[in-house]
């Protein structure tokens, strides 16, 4: 039923949700290019229920905070690995050189993405070559990540608990280092059976590091097209109500590759260079949250979906097919 076709009295009768009744969407730092569109999608989500939902989220500075209360900077998933003490002396030096060569290309506002892609592949390939030929004990990574398990956005645990309870699959999509992502999420107790991490994972050969496993996930191929035809895609592709969350402009395209009939609500966390970036973020995301270090908005959306779901299934039978535990082990 197209929500826009309803008149005011019909909206009241079917429990239509209005933006003005959702407090977190009425805060000053919450911006929307088209609030009517957001309202329409929210109502589709609420009517469709949890069984049609999936969440696709970036990790670095989306699940982790962009700014912590104590001012301590949170490193990226690659940054956590790169700061491990046992890595060879020249490793960090060489990794820094690559950063200074390729990062300006990554953020160059003039170079087309089609041209950037080859440089990003070079960057990731050369990083993989550097992470080759020496021993590395993953328990060192666990020790490093444990220092940052409290640097997740406020409300992250509650959000992930609700997603598990409602059996909603979560894809954490990261062009960073998957080993750090999984380690940090495990230590923070949010690596639940409904969560799948697609990222770059270290590969070992004969006890020594051997670069990264395939396929390479870089900034410009980080979308569901890399999953097409794989097990995870099969498990979730019928879930056509999608919440996408990210802090980089490229994150807005993470659901590219899902059927065009899908309803996608994109939430962007904007922190750096707010004024300069605002227009681009407003064009890329449906909801832009400026210096919001919480999960309040996705939590509020889930609460609405949950509330309607409870009304339909008051006796606890949730009517949803269980999210297969094999989500985590599903290959791409
Ligand atoms: Mg990020």
UniProtKB/TrEMBL annotation:
SUPFAM superfamilies: HAD-like. It catalyses: a ribonucleoside 5'-phosphate + H2O = a ribonucleoside + phosphate. InterPro entries: HAD-like_sf (IPR036412), HAD_sf (IPR023214), Pyrimidine_nucleotidase_eu (IPR006434). Residues 313-332 are annotated as: Disordered. GO terms for biological process: nucleotide metabolic process. It is an enzyme of class 3 (hydrolase). One of its GO terms (cellular component) is cytoplasm. Its main location: cytoplasm. Pfam families: UMPH-1. NCBIfam families: HAD-SF-IE (TIGR01544). This is 5'-nucleotidase. It comes from Drosophila hydei (Fruit fly).
